[in-house]
Amino acid sequence: MPLPLPLRVGLDGAPSRPAAEGGEALCDVADSSGDAGQRLSAVDALPRLMGADPAGCLAEVVPRLTLALPASPPDFQRAAGASFLAVLRRELLPQSTFTQTFLQSILISVDSKDPVVAAAWLETLLDVIDLLPSDVIQQEILGVAVEKSQLSHPACSRVAGCKLIGRMASKFDPYTIQTELLASVQSLCQDVDCDVRAAMCSQLGAVAHGLGPQETRAAIIPELVELASDEEVTVRLAAFRTLVDMLDILDAETCTQTIIPLATKVCESSYETRDTSLPVIARLLGKLCSGLNGYLSSEQKQTFLDFYSNVARLKNLHKAAAARNELNPMPDLVPQLDPSERYMECCEACAYNFPAMLLLAGGDLSRSNLHATFTDLVFDPHGPVRRVVAAGFHEVCRLLGPSVHQVHSELVHLLKDDSVEVLAALVERLPLTLAAFVRHGVLGPAAKPELVAELTAALMTSECVIANTTRWRLHAGLLQRLSSLAECFPADHLYHCWVPTIFQKLHTVRPIPCRQAAARTLLVFLQNVRQIEHRQVICARIGEELGQNDSCHMRKLYLDICGMVLDIFSKSFFKQYFFMTTLALVDDPVPNIRRGLCLLLSRMKATLRLPADKRRLQELEAVVRQLLVTEQDRDAAAAVRLAIIQLDKIEVAMETPGRPALLLEVDAEDGRRQRQEQQQLAPPGRPADQRRLSRGRIPVRTSAASPTTPTGRDKSGVGAATATGRARPAGAAAAAAAAGRRHSLVEPSECRIPSLARLRMRDTLSEPELPQPPSATRGQNQRRRLGHAAR
User: Fold this and answer.
1) Which residues of 651-686 are buried (b: 16+ CB within 10 A; e: fewer)?
2) pLDDT tens-digit series, residues 676-694
């Protein structure tokens, strides 16, 4: 069947013309060098053409394509190989048809005289083996691989045969491997060319996984032992890599009698020669010891630990010898290469394998001077080494268990590092690292003041270093992970030290994700305060410094915080501290702020319960009516209409003393949050249930000297946003400012790291006088809106 007219595309990439009188044929290959790009486009379109009309493409396109392959340039052949593979992966043809057409072209092209083209088609053939069934591979490819493995073929052909045998071994059963491939495997392991031996040695792991433990012990292990003692470094390294990869299929007897002595011999030999194999062996040492851990005796474990410690100290020994001028032979007689770079690679490998070696030592830092080795790695002058140590620090803390306090000074040093890469690696797993210290009592509510102050100073140093870079994602990640400090430090320390710091970040950092991360961390700290006065001060500062800020960006951040409060805290908490202040933003002069308020209205209505929240419901409805009548901005008006639709779908629950509201899963979660907030406020040594009040509300002082809540609540507990609210007395404002200066440990103007002595002052600070929160009145917002319009 001929191709449809839209699909009659030639190898020149243009639609093919109808047959002319001169005998033009469909899909003629253009000979001009200027048509190379069009030919590549035609080859790339082969899968699409095959999917549209397989029969027509096979009859007219594929034959001419296969004829053009031998004389085509490398780029064209690589594109053809990718198209052939795409046809097989997408299953555009039956496997029998693919075998008869495309597979034969691939097998012919593998023997190309151009090494670049041959290597490209070999990679294509290896990928095809993974997709074809074993019977097709055995019938079509097995003979080619065995033929290429013969000694009569060139070395490059025998290397290709090694790769084919390794890939086919994963598709065959043990009997087929033993009868069809094993003889070629043993012959290639004894090849006269070192590249062939190294290539076959790299494939022994795949062959061993296909054979099984018993056949591997009899046929593969002897070859591997011999290759591990080869005179060529590349062969020995290939044997060691294969040895490490085969550990999961070897039995205990093979590991004890053969593998452990062999690994010990290879490690000792590489340390004595100190050649290019040493960095590779140092990198694989951790995986080797982890695989053999169950078969090693105490003496053998000590041998590997000593080898690890010696390799880790090579760089320092070389540096000391160079300082004593012991490594300066006569340059005109004995030229030598500087091994410093090699030793630095060994040091980086040791840093990577330290958790595995600590596991081998049973979590004991005193064995083989592991603690001294770890300290040297932490204080290494090269940044890549410290970065690797920082990336695995959480694993070290987990393995140490109760002895995690031994690496506290190393953690502090890494946090004070001036390299951003080191800090990035450490910050990524910082919560896991701190959790290990909390789990074993080093950090927590009863942590020592000295440790808390030292770690606080280090964390603030790292935050300042990251904040001074352009990597805002890393900064946002650090600010978010600082929320884990709520479990590490006492509540008073969080309030006096970290809460002012987070407030400073809310005002100073510019990227919005960083501000949002800092806001979420502040709310986590708010969850863990132990005194209701502290809770009221934090909520008042949020409403005053963000909700009533002159900057629309701060007010937008306040709306984001309200959404976070609804996600984290209970409904009663939001109604008590944020409900009325949020409704006051209805008169905001910026349309985006009013639009953000509209997006929160439905969630705010879901927090209400009648009849207790009747006044709040009336205020909410008044805000909606005002927005519906006065809103003129197009986007904000659309948000108002959407909010009205969402509000109509929400029914306010009714509850009476004799008939409580129907409890749903959401209500159960809200009750859990409310109980958690009540228990968090209970002072130490006093049961939480003694502070519970009726209706489960958080206790609030009612004396005349007590501060008002941020929402302007009256004596009945119902907030109201009046148009003529009272201004805060000057005396209360001055007292609040003095209290803020007395308890702020970080200057708001710049990033300064407090000293340890200043951090320890938190225990001697007196209780702050609670500032009177401002009244978020609509009259003030209207005046601000008029001022904004005038500007």
Assistant:
1) ebbeeeeeeeeeeeeeeeebeebbeebbebbeeeee
2) 888 887 554 444 334 333 3
